[in-house]
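FAQ
Q: What does a multi-component entry look like?
A: The components come first, one per line:
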Amino acid sequence: MLKMQDISKIYRTDLIETYALRSFSLEVTAGEFVAVTGPSGSGKTTFLNVAGLLEDFDSGRYELDGTDVRALSDDARSRLRNQRIGFIFQSFNLIPDLNVQDNVDVPLRYRGLAASDRRERITSALELVGLASRARHMPAQLSGGQQQRVAIARAIAGDPAFLLADEPTGNLDSLMARQVMDLLEQINEMGTTILLVTHDPELARRAQRNVHLIDGQISDFRAYEPRPAPSGAADAAGAALA
Amino acid sequence: MLGYYLRLALRSFARTPGITVLMVLAIALGIAVCVMTLTVFHAMSGNPIWWKSDRLYAVTMDNWDPSAPFDKKQPDLPPPLMTYKDAKYVAASGVPLRKVIMYPVDATLSGTGAAPLRISTRATTGDFFAMFDAPFLYGGGWSAAAEDPPQPSIVLSRETNDKLFGGSNSVGRTLRWNDHEFRVVGVLDYWFPRPRFFDLIGGSFQPPDDAYVPFAWGPALSLQSAGNTDCWKPETINNQQDFLASDCVWVETWMELPDVATRERMQTLLDNYWAEQHRAGRFPRPRNNRLTDVGQWLRDLHVVDNDNRVLVGLAFAFLAVCLINTVGLLLAKFLNAAAVTGVRRALGASRRQIFTQHLVEVAILAVLGAALGCLLAALGLAAVHHMYAAAHLGQRGGYQELTHFDTVGVAWAIVLALVATLAAGLYPAWRVGRTPPAVYLKSQ
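Then the predicted structure of the entire assembly, as tokens:
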């Protein structure tokens, strides 16, 4: 479903070249919950950006649902991102002058769905995260945990196959963080594949598989014991390819 | 999506009202200055009788001094006026569909009960009205039979009729023109060709005359031209007959030549006449007989001079400065919101969609700029109009007549604002679409 082979990503300046990802290979199957860990600067976010088609890579091959993404135009990549991938960010990244409902509506707009379909999806997503009653609130009127739940609703409203979460609890207290993780687990159990970048060992432990990055490469080191795969998840879950 | 982009644009304006106002003002100022200049330029350079300008020809023959051209700046051009005898000769030709010889005279109107009125009168042949499409409110012109000997027929302008007869149908009424009794045969409707192509000598943007009488009245009453009379050789002129026979030029001559064949026949007639006169000792300069259409006539007589062209250039330069400022503001605004754009890209917006979204915002700015620009241009032109009107003590004519903001001006404003602002907005809209989203997602 997500297959990266020998991916390299280099950041260049006039003086130096920095490998953010070096011969990086990973295969993630449908329904997996994978935690990506590693020290700062190890390439976690770069991996997530490449996986989410937000950044290009310099070499290697990346297939998403069997499609070689390198050959795609910007329009096609954007369409794929819009239809197959949901993003959750550490700093929520809600659009401040749109209310909750309109924030959740953004990816649905770009998909070109009819108004009634969009309304239905927004309501379902907000109900799932427990914020249906806050649909008209502005982001600034919500707590951090609530804002992140709105971001999760926005990410899942389009029913994506992948959810890419970059430190989703990094700006939350432990109680809120737990709630968000509960929600992510719930979403994963519904069949959505989740790639979670985190520093937090507690959170990583709740994933089925841990991919540890050092200097842009997958390390054999596994810091945490992953949780067992949920029933119904793909059999291949946990079969890491490093 | 267009409705969605419109909503986003309005939210964007609400988020940054100061910058929005600045941008609209910059566009509006640039547009207003351009539209004001273009309105005047358009009025000056427009062909007021374009629908038949290729049928109407000014007739000129170079009878001037063999040692110096009439106009040293344009030595290849003959004098713009003709001698009386040459004008009479060509006007007697049966080749043209219509022909007009004319000159302006000053006159006094009285005998209507109102105070005597000092007016400008055009002594002209009767084809004048049909040839130049002058519209009649009442009555009509005079027939060819009324010209020789001249009948006391007079056509009034609408303004003169308003002054003398309160705007009522005065056809058949009598009045005294230069102390001779004349009968009103027609009243023109409002008519103000700009520029006054048929008589550019007396001022390109003066209104047409107050009254019109058969041409022959001028010479018969020994009325001198109120326009130009130019002579080049020493001649003994003791009386009106001497003057009419002289080589002084003072008669304007126009012809309506409906097709190429007629035009060629007329040219041949002129050339033959020139050859005959040349053999008799006249026309000492090389043969230079011209039939000049309206467009070329306006160019030859420099209706639009270089100053006006420079002014239009400066106005566009000012617009460019305004737009460069707008580009700067747009770039600052769009890039300041690049984090939100990054989020939209992450959520599935393509570069094209981001570009379109921002271009819609630019288009709204353009429309607002055009609307305000129209208003400012209208106010500016009104101010210029009043300024010139005050300088002319309320009289008609002159530059104030060029300062009417009409539908052409509005069209200019809208087209200019849309094209210029959209062109200016292309780069910022493109640039924000190219911004890599990942840079902003972590840092927002």
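Q: Is there any commentary attached?
A: Sometimes. For this entry: Chain B touches chain A at residues 1, 4, 11, 14-15, 339-340, 342-353, 436-438, 441-442, 444 (CB under 8 Å).
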